[in-house]
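Example 3.2
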Amino acid sequence: DSPGERFSKRSNKRSMSASDASASEPEGVWLLQCASSSTTRVGSGEGSGEDGKDRLVSLNSHVGRQVWVYDTDAAPLDLVKKVRSLQASFTSNRHTCRHSSDELLRLQRKPFTGADDKLPARSSKSTRPSADVPTIDKHLKAGCEFFNGLQADDGHWPGDYGGPMFLMPGLIIATWVAEVEDEVFPPPAKIEVIRYLLNHQNEDGGFGLHIEGHSTMFGTVLSYVSLRLMEVDADHPAAKTAREWIKERGGATYITSWGKFWLSILAVYDWRGQNPLTPEMWLMPYSFCGIPNYLHPGRFWCHCRMVYLPMSYLYGVRACSKFTNPHKWRLIHTLRTEIFVEAFDDIDWNKARNQCAKEDLYYPHPPLQDALWYTMDCLEDVLHHSFVRRWANEEVLRHVRYEDENTRYIDIGPVNKVINMLVRYFAGDMDGFRMHIPRIYDYLWVAEDGMKMQGYNGSQLWDTAFAVQALSSTGLHIDCARAIYRAHTYMKETQVREDCPKLERYYRHISKGAWPFSTRDHGWPISDCTAEGLKACLGMGGLLNVGIDVGMMLPIERMRDAVDVILSFQNSNGGCATYENTRSFEALELINPAETFGDIIVDYSYVECTSACMQALGAFSKFDAFYRCAHVASFFRRAEQYILRNQRDDGSWYGSWGVCFTYAIWFGCCGLSAVPRKTLGKKGATQRFAPQTVKGALAMRRAIIFLLDKQRADGGWGESYLSCQDKVYSQIEPPDAPSHIVMTSWAMLAMMQANIAWDTTCLAGVEPYAELASDAENLARRVPQALAAGARFLMHMQERNGDWPQQSISGVFNRNCMISYSQYRNIFPIWALGEFKKALKVQS
């Protein structure tokens, strides 16, 4: 069987219409399959190709891989009815609750998540649970039992990492162009894709950049085209309203540059209307006589360069559909009439190059960039058929192959994964193209809202590292021993063991000892993932000391490898970026061609990444105080200054990877509190903080005051994703909506980490640190009250089975696009309540 047939190998053969997700459906259910350390294959795409070559390779027997498989044999009628009920419920409420709750995963794991009545029915606002240790313990046990039941056999916690609306359309277009759409999307999958698109259409008929966003031309055109390629009729109500939305705003020539790219591949748009993506930029020298060439794409943020790398190849060869199927050509010509206002042959493509709808324009092109594109466009007639273009395409193709092979064909993310696949197709490398097919399923996730393409091949390592720390904080070591043991095994299995070959040739950073965001097969090293992975593994030592079996500790050599990687991530400004060091400077954002994303050219330093690295080095220093101790001390000095410099006047930090100020304040406080504390004065005399730590304590105090001022009437915190794009704190709407359990947890963790109420009182009257204790008495009163109110809110929001409800989206990237972290709703309430319970015990 082909990989696509395995994707639905147990589905029955009933005929069905793909024109509507509510059409007659096969009586089966989608089941998540995860690998374990003893399993060499999981889910779809397994086995060899017709030539006998293994098309699915792994470094660790696919540990962490998660694939949804359609199954009818394991689908009793009552289960099918329950799934249909969950799907119908989401659809009926889709405009008020846009985020799915991962109900299909929870339904599948129900035998392992315990009873449905662990807790009493939710009380009224006036009779919330008491914030005392016995009550908190009861809620923690219920929450941990449920959460541990969601854990996969290999130790990670699977979950939905969807949210962006532009990912699935790229995959649909790519498979349609390569004529493998029926293999990748058999009927059950096609129905779920259509369900997802229909569920996330906005009330005005358009589609957003992400599931909670306002309608954009980028989201609407690509979603409309996807529905049509999925055989949804042009007269379908959703298609008609989307088409009206597009034409009312000038038509598809106003789509963003990424949208223009995808439409050009499909032959629904002309490459002449695309700003140049010249592959020749990869032929430039990385440096001139030792002087860095900051315009070389190897100096760009890796996600940016790994997307524009394959884009430049396809632009360089003017790749587009070459169908032999007359039905497909008819649909192409029909789409040309449906999405443009004017006739296709009458479009002014030169004018269209820089057209962009106002709904999409987050980062307008500066005049300098428009002048650059004009100049490069003039050179295209010379370059297009030259030997230089052939040379450049060959160079780009080498980089594409390198990326594919060193990520086991997963690639760094979903956008470049699909475009790399197309590069192999248009280059005539059908073996490389076929190697991509099985790894498509690593990116697909199914929930009650349908099938989506995730923003990565999952967030397995990231969620598991947080989960270990959360469970460890509860003190429920016996209850959580098995889950922690399995999670620790996953952490050890997922650490990267070796560097990629030829690092300098392919502009890669060291990776030996690092942890990736998802799986070892993915392999890209990330600063904060490495830090959280090391922290989680180091925390196992404390559990061993109290007699909990967590398995063998990570060998000291591998811990030191992780420390080496973390130290290597520090930039000259003291902060840490994401995947690599900062290789260029902010002014290069002038050439950011993506109108809808901000800050994509440079891998900047971030408070979150810097803080995570500080915390990991602080934890490691307690374990091994002598390894590279001078480098570690220098790292702390510079990192602390970076975090202090980036604090805003109001006491907050801007968050780049979570929503938003609440998230960054948690990291800012954790980073500053990780700075090793020195004391001044003789032994037995008044003990004082060293000056740099006092500055950190002052910064934390200001951050906590900021959070206290943002606490809501129900005791929680609730920040809207609008904070990310507007860079101003925004409360969730409407005002009477419940606070957000994840933001409430972050705020509580920040305040407890800062430890304001207990750290500042000893400095009263001690100059020059009197400012630190000036309102210590006030904070000593307000912080415990705020924490207690937050804890009561978290327990009040907890469901009877121990789960917490899914609320609005909490992740972000590139300032303007939101992404889901579905396990956050369990991890962080458990963590916050666990730390609060410990604080109560210490206080008493």
